[in-house]
Design brief:
Elements: H1 21-55, H2 59-87, H3 89-108, H4 113-127, H5 130-141, H6 145-176, H7 186-200, H8 214-237, H9 241-263, H10 277-307, H11 312-332, H12 342-366, H13 369-396, H14 403-440, H15 447-455, H16 457-465, H17 469-508
Helix pairs in contact: 1-2, 1-5, 1-6, 1-7, 2-3, 2-4, 2-5, 2-8, 2-14, 3-4, 3-5, 3-7, 5-6, 5-14, 6-11, 6-13, 8-9, 8-14, 10-13, 10-14, 10-17, 11-13, 12-13, 12-17, 13-14, 14-15, 14-17, 15-16, 16-17
């Protein structure tokens, strides 16, 4: 028999049921897989040199080792979120945790590049169960709006903590152990989740849900994979006809998916959710905020290492303050809800983020390290309440039996926002870099060296090290200035985007009550 948490719609709006100690301890359990979800996105980057030396993958295989995890996470989120609504959110979380632990062991001891790719693919599918199931369980564990907002803040902070801890823990493990050790971090955490989850987490599923529509699941997977893959290829190789065709094909498949949902009595995604202006606006604002954050953090890390000359560990330490600011903002922001409505908090947070991005542009223009660090902390503090409240609005806008699907939509949108931020801002910054370096290239370089210097800043630094001191110093100055110019424009674009998102928040974020369930 399925255990079902009390429906918040059954309680008096003026006196919603309060969470007990069991729910708060359960929230700590839910934070465990969220930590691993984001850690696994970052920890592999440090292990690439070690596994490359051991497995000797081709360049194409190495690309798939890195990318396949994120691709299958993005493509499987909608299916896994909806599946949790049907078979039970705790059950899908336990299944995913088991699969994640097994796949982690397979990845750690993979003897070939092909098997490592397969293990990473399995990790991606398993990870797609984690975010929607944990977020939708929060929707059913915390019925009081203020408590739920705070719980979502903790949930978001756990992702931030995982992203910050991943490089640190991974670096320590790689200092003493082989590359596969970075995958074994997941095993004890997942074992703990499997022990505590059934005791502390409630089960919830839609008692009236039908069977999952397999063609819809296939269409959603194909559409998301095609668009994400095309965007990432543009970010890596520049604008070309092939990635554009792939993106257009993905959009076409997505249109077919939407049409099928309209014809089904029990669709994979309830399209009625998008008729709620608060839901759609919160989704759009979430995408814009992640667009700015992902693009800037990626190029910020490169700026610290390639322009300011820091080693990876030192650069990682200097990114820690902004990560801590993000965690603190996610946890403390819900307290503002007692003084301001969510729309004002989101708009104000985006305004603070815009100031942070403007400070970042000033730091680059005036070459101020103190201002640079201040800028990262300011926009992290500004964006953290944005993600907390928009996620709360997205999940809260859905009826309880559709919380898994709504959570999956939120996470899929986040994947798109991050990929777009990296692709768009990266393409703009790369174009500025290439044009500037090509126009000022010092004389005397052979074709191969010039091409390497034009392609990336890292390539220019490598080429410069083999040149005579004067020419090498000139090339380094030109390349670093060109990279900084691209980064400066990216910061300016993020400033504009967050201002527009703030205006959208002020005008559109007026949440409606969740749609009534059939029982109601």
């Amino acid at each position: 028999m399925t255990e079902r948490s009390p429906d918040p719609a059954a309680a008096s709006p003026s006196d919603p049921p309060q969470a007990t100690r069991r729910e708060w301890v359960g929230l700590a359990v839910l934070a465990l897989p969220c930590l691993l979800y984001s850690m696994d996105l970052t920890v592999l980057n440090l292990a690439i040199p070690h596994l490359s030396a051991d497995l000797n993958p081709t360049s194409a295989q190495l690309l798939w080792i890195v990318d396949i995890y994120g691709f299958l996470v993005a493509g499987s989120l909608i299916t896994m979120g909806t599946l949790g609504d049907r078979i039970g959110r705790r059950r899908i979380l336990m299944i995913g945790a088991t699969a994640f632990g097994i796949a982690s062991v397979l990845a750690a001891f993979a003897p070939t590049a092909e098997l490592l790719i397969a293990a990473r693919a399995a990790l991606g599918v398993a990870a797609a169960t984690l975010a929607p199931s944990t977020l939708s369980l929060i929707r059913n564990m915390f019925h009081d709006p203020r408590q739920r907002t705070f719980a979502i803040g903790i949930w978001i902070a756990s992702f931030s903590a995982g992203g910050a801890l991943g490089p640190v823990i991974g670096g320590l493990l790689l200092t003493w152990f082989w590359w596969g050790s970075v995958f074994l971090i997941a095993v004890p955490v997942m074992v703990l989740l499997l022990i505590l989850g059934p005791r502390l987490l409630p089960e919830y599923r839609d008692p009236d849900a039908g069977s999952i529509d397999i063609p819809s699941a296939v269409l959603s997977l194909a559409a998301v994979l095609a668009v994400i893959y095309g965007i990432k290829r543009i970010a890596e190789t520049g604008l070309g006809w092939l990635p554009v065709v792939i993106i257009l094909a993905g959009i076409g498949i997505g249109v077919a998916f939407v049409r099928r949902q309209r014809q089904l009595a029990d669709p994979l995604i309830d399209l009625a959710l998008f008729r709620n202006p608060a839901f759609s606006a919160a989704l759009a604002i979430n995408i814009l905020g992640i667009f700015a954050a992902f693009g800037i953090f990626l190029y910020g890390a490169q700026y610290l290492q390639l322009v300011l000359g820091m080693d990876p560990f030192t650069a990682g330490l200097w990114t820690a303050p902004s990560g801590l600011a993000f965690i603190a903002g996610s946890i403390l922001a819900p307290g503002l809800a007692r003084r301001m409505p969510p729309a004002q908090i989101v708009a104000a947070g985006l305004g603070v983020a815009a100031i942070g991005f403007a400070l970042l542009a000033g730091a680059i223009a005036f070459d101020s390290f103190v201002l640079l660090m201040t800028a990262f902390i300011v926009f992290a503090l500004g964006l953290s309440p944005v993600f907390t409240f928009t996620t709360d609005l997205i999940v809260g806008a859905a009826p309880p039996e559709r919380a898994g699907a709504a959570s999956a939509i939120s996470e899929t949108a986040a994947e798109f926002g991050g990929a777009l931020g990296i692709a768009v801002l990266g393409s703009i910054a790369t174009a500025i870099y290439r044009d500037s370096v090509a126009a000022q290239m010092p004389a005397g370089l052979d074709t191969a060296a010039a091409e390497a210097a034009i392609n990336t800043l890292a390539g220019a630094l490598t080429v410069a090290a083999a040149l005579p001191a004067a020419i090498g110093a000139d090339l380094i100055r030109i390349a670093r200035t060109a990279f900084s110019d691209g980064f400066l424009l990216a910061a300016g674009i993020c400033t504009t985007i967050t201002i527009l998102a703030a205006l959208l928040a002020a005008g559109m974020l007026h949440p409606r009550k969740p749609a009534a369930t059939p029982a109601d």
